[in-house]
Specification:
Blueprint lengths: L12 H12 L4 H8 L3 H9 L6 H7 L1
Length: 62
């Protein structure tokens, strides 16, 4: 029987705010993803606004 894998980490809203801060600081998406141990696609979804809408404005106001 195949071994069950542990689900990957899910970005929280607070994580998404941090993604924006790192992105604006010039950090590459793949390095941001590695920091959070997620797929680069999840970081890209935050930046495109598909995941955690409102995180960009929260990052700007913080």
């Amino acid at each position: 029987m195949a071994e069950r894998r542990k689900p990957s980490y899910r970005l929280t809203f607070a994580d998404a705010v941090e993604v924006w801060r790192r992105y604006w600081a010039g950090e590459y998406q793949n390095r941001i993803a590695a920091f959070f141990d997620v797929n680069q696609g999840r970081v890209n979804e935050v930046i495109k606004g598909y995941r955690h809408p409102g995180s960009e404005s929260a990052a700007r106001s913080a």
